[in-house]
Amino acid sequence: MSPLVPYDLRCEHLATPRGLNTSAPRFSWALRGTGVERRQTAYRLCVTQSSGAPLWDSGKVTSPRTQMIDYAGPVLPKDAILSWTVTVWDENDTVSAAAEPATIFTGLAAGDWQAQWIARYFVLPAGREVPADNPYDNRWQARPADYLRRDFSARAEPVRALLYVTALGLYEAYLNGQRIGQDVMAPGWTDYHRRVDYQVHEVTDLVRSGGNVLGAIIGEGWYCGRVGHNQRRAGNHYGGRPAFLCQLHLTHADGSLEIITTDEHWQTRQGPICYSDFLMGEMVDARLDITGWDTAPGPLPGWQPVEVFVPDPAAPQLDAARMQPAREVARLPATFSHRTANGAAIFDLGQNIAGYVELSVSAKAGDRFTLRHAEMLDAAGEAYTANLRHAVATDIFVTRGGGRETFKPRFTFHGFRFVEVTLPEAMSPDDIGLVGIAIQSDTPLCGEIETGHAQTNQLLSNIFWSQRDNFLSVPTDCPQRDERYGWTADAQVFWKTAGYTMDVSAFLSKWMLDIEDGQSPDGAFPDVAPTKPLNPYRLTPQPGAPGWGDAPVIMAWEHWLRYADKGLLERYWPALEAWAAHIERANPDRLRRQAVYNNYGDWLSVGPASDRTLVATAYWVRVADLMVNIAGVLGHAGRAAHYTALGQTVRQAFAKAFLDADGHLSGDTQTAYLLALDFDILDAPASARAATRLVELIEAAGGHLQTGFLGVRHLLPVLTTIGRDDLAVAMLLKDTYPSWGFSIRHGATTIWERWDGWTPDNGFQSTNMNSFNHYAYGSVGEWIWSRLAGIDTTSTAPGYEAIRLAPLFDERIGMVRARYQSHRGSVASHWQFIEGTVHWTIDVPANCIAHVALPAGWRRRHDHADGWTLGSGEQSYDLERI
Ligand code: BGC
C-alpha cells in the first residue's frame, strides 16, 4: 500500500496567511491515500525560517489529529516569511513524503508600525451649488481618486522586501510602475472606527538599488463613499476622505532593515479617475492620464504635499487580514443583443454577476462611452434599473484617442447581467470589446455537484452565483441596489449551503469579528455587520431581530460541525452568552415578545403571514439548544444545564401559547410547523399532528411553498425528517408560482429576493425592494447536498471526521454526482439509477469514517443491509428496493 499523502495545508484556515493575529496559529492538512481504511497514526510538523533554519519541529507525535494543531515552538518572529510542512505515518507506520510546503507571513505587531496615515488636503466645498467647472465635479459630489507617491533610494538591492499596506477607503499599490498583488476592493470592509485589515505582499523582485517609486491610488469605498440606503446620510459613514498607510521593509544582505513608510514626504494629485463610488459608479477621463506617475523620479511638479491624517475618532487597530482577499474570479464575454429606442446598445453577459466590465475601444480623443448596468430588461428591452433605488450604477469612459484603449473601473462594482452602452455617434456595437468581470472574496471553491435534472442543475448554478456575487468582504444581501449590507439572517439561513460550495472557514472567522464589533453593550447582536451605515444616527448599532440577531449562534455551530474549530467557539462564547442573556432578561414569561426590535418575522413569505411571536420564540428554543451544544463542546457543564432548563421552559411556553386543542399552531402557516418540527419544540404526539398539518397545508397550496427567508431553509429537510422525500423532491422540481423552478423558467441566473420578483401577470414587483440576486432562498442547497447527494456532518465527530452518508434516490432526479473537498480530504457520493436499481459510489477520505443510512425502502443487494459504517476509500454498492 502506498503511503498516505498530506496535502491542502492550511494555517488559521488559510493556504497562505498574510499576517497572523495570534502567537499560536493552528495548522491543518487533508489526507489522501489509495486503498481502504487508511489512517494516520502519527505526524511531524516542521516550521522553517526563510533562511532555511528550523524554527519548530514537533518531532513525531503519535496522534491521528490533522486539524487545528497549535503551534508550540519558540516565539514567532515578526515580519518573517515562514515555510511549513508535515509528514505523516499510516496504520503500518509507513512514513509519507513531506507535504508540498506552505507559506506563512507572520506580519507586524502593533508596536512595529511606524507609518503615518496620509491623505489629500481637505478642501471644503465652495458653495451650496454643486460646481461644474472642472472634470472632477459631479452631481453626487463623489470624490476623484487620489494618486499618492514618493520616490526613495534603497541602500542596496534588498534580499527581501515586504510591503505592509492598507487604506481607509480602497487602494491599489504600485512599485516602480508595477501593480502590487491582484486584490480588488482592498482592504475590505470592517468597522473602521475600531479596526482595519492590512495586507502584506512580497515585492523583493520589484525593488532596485538606488531610486524607486512607491505609489498608490485610493478611492472612497466603504469608508467614505456611499453605502446603504439612508439618503439623509448616504456616505461618509466612517470619515470624510480616504487615507493610505504603508510600510515597506527592505531586508539587506548584511541583516539590516531599511523601512520606508507613508509620511509627510509623499505627494498627491488627482488623475484620470474623476470619481468612483460603489453606488454611483466610476468615471475615467483618459485625457487626464498622468502616465509615469509611478516611475518618474520625484518630487514631481504639479503635485501637492500630502497631509498626515489623524483618523477620527481614533486610529483603528491594524489587523492582519483573516480571510482571502477579493479578486477577479471570472471573465464573461458580453454579446451584443439589440439597440434600444434611443439607440443605446444592450449587451448581455448571460449571467447575473457582481463586478464590472472591461471595455476596449479605439476612438478619438474626448469620445464618451456611458455604461449603465442592470439585472433585467423591461418589456421594451430597456435596461431595468428602477430596482436599484438610489444606486446609479453607471460608469463613464472618455477616451484619450490614438489607438486601442482599455477601461476597467477600480473602486466600484455593480450587480448586473446587462450593460447598456451609449456609444459615440457613428460607432457600432461591433467596434467595442466588452467583457464582464466577476469579483468575490476568493474563498476556495470546494464543492462540485451535478444531477440528472436540468432545472436542479440550473438551481445549483443560481445558488453558486448568488453566493459568489454576495461574498465580497462580508456576506451581503445583494450586490446591486443601494443596500449591500451584511444582513445576518440572510447569512445564517444560507450558511450551511454556503459551506458546501466554498470554504467559508476564514470568511466567517473574519465576519464574526465584525458582528462582535457591532454588539451593543447590553449584549444585542446587530441586524447587519458591519453596522454603521444602516443607522448612522444611532449611538449604538441597530439590534438584531429574532432570526437576525440569533445568526452568530447558528453560524458558530455550523462552523463547528463543518470545520471542528473549537477556537472560534471559545473566542465568541462570551459574546454568544451576552446575546442569550439579552433575550432571557427581556422575556421573563418565556415568550419572546420583548427585545425583538424590527421583528421581521418570516420575511417575504407569500400566502398567510406567520405569527411573529411564534417565529421569535421558536428561534429562542433553537438558540437555547445550540447554547447547550456549544457549552458541551467547551465543557461548561453548568451553563449547559442552564440552557437545557431554559429550552424546556420556552418549549412549554410555546406549546401553551401557540398550540390549540386540534394540534394547530397560531397562524397555521407552513413556517410555523416547519420551525416547530425542525427545532424539535413539541412533544411527540403534537409533532406528529404538526407533520400531518404541514403536509395538508402544502397540498392545499397545490404543492407550493409559502415560506419566507426563515421558513424556507427548513422546508425540504423537514419533509425528509417526516418521511416525505417524495414531496420534498416534488417541491424542488416544481416550476409554477411560487417555487424555485418558477424563477428559472423565467430566465433567472441567480436567486431572486422574492418569489414574485417578476411574474407574467404583474411584471416586476415593487421598485422599493426587488433584488434578483439575494441568496436567502438558495438555502435549499443544503438539502440538495446533505440529502439528495447525502453528504453531511455528524455532531459526535464534527469536521467530517465521521461523515454521515444518507442519500435519497429518486427517479425524477435520475442521478447525483457530488464531490466535496472537506478540510480533512475529499468526500464523494455518486448515485444513478440503472434499470430500477441504484449504483452508488462513495469516497471517504483517509483517516475518516462514514456512517451510511440508506433511505427507507432501500437495501444493499448482496447482504440486504440498510445502514453500515466504513473506513476510508472508494466503494461501490448495488442497491435495490425492498
Ligand atoms: C434586505 C434583506 C434583509 C431585510 C431585513 C432587506 O432590505 O435586503 O435581505 O434581511 O431587509 O428585513
Describe the structure.
- The structure is a single chain.
- The chain has 882 residues and is α+β, with helices and mostly antiparallel strands.
- The chain has 14 helices and 47 strands.
- A hairpin with a 3-residue loop joins strand 37 and strand 38.
- Helix 3 runs parallel beside helix 5.
- The two termini are 37 Å apart.
- The relative contact order is 0.09.
- The mean pLDDT is 97.
Key traits:
882 residues, alpha+beta, 10-stranded mixed sheet
Task: Give me the number of helical elements.
Answer: 14
- Note the overall shape: globular
Q: What structural class results from the helix and strand content?
A: alpha+beta
Number of strands: 47
Q: Unreliable segments (pLDDT under 50, ≥5 consecutive)?
A: none
How many strands, which pairing sense, and closed or not: the largest β-sheet?
A: 10 strands, mixed
From the N-terminal CA to the C-terminal CA, the straight-line distance is 37 Å
On the 0-100 scale, what is the average pLDDT?
A: 97
Radius of gyration equals: 28 Å
What fraction strand? 25-35%
In short:
It is built from 14 helices and 47 strands. The protein has 882 residues and is α+β, with helices and mostly antiparallel strands. The chain is globular.
Annotate the secondary structure layout.
Layout: E1 5-11, E2 26-32, E3 40-48, E4 54-57, E5 61-62, E6 69-70, E7 81-90, E8 102-105, E9 118-119, E10 146-154, E11 160-168, E12 170-175, E13 178-179, E14 195-202, E15 210-219, H1 221-224, E16 243-251, E17 257-261, E18 267-270, E19 273-277, E20 281-285, E21 304-305, E22 307-308, E23 317-320, E24 326-333, E25 335-339, E26 345-362, E27 368-374, E28 376-377, E29 383-384, E30 394-398, E31 404-407, E32 414-422, E33 433-441, E34 447-451, H2 454-470, E35 471-472, E36 474-475, H3 488-501, H4 505-517, H5 551-563, H6 566-586, H7 612-634, H8 637-658, H9 670-678, H10 684-700, H11 709-721, H12 725-733, H13 740-745, E37 758-759, E38 763-764, H14 781-789, E39 791-792, E40 802-805, E41 815-822, E42 825-834, E43 837-844, E44 849-853, E45 858-860, E46 867-870, E47 873-881
Parallel strand pairs: 14-23, 20-30, 40-44
Antiparallel strand pairs: 1-2, 2-6, 3-4, 3-5, 3-7, 7-8, 9-22, 10-15, 10-18, 11-14, 11-16, 12-13, 12-15, 16-17, 18-21, 19-20, 24-33, 25-26, 26-31, 26-32, 26-33, 27-30, 27-32, 28-29, 34-41, 35-36, 37-38, 39-40, 41-42, 42-43, 43-47, 44-46, 45-47
Beta-D-glucopyranose binds next to α3.
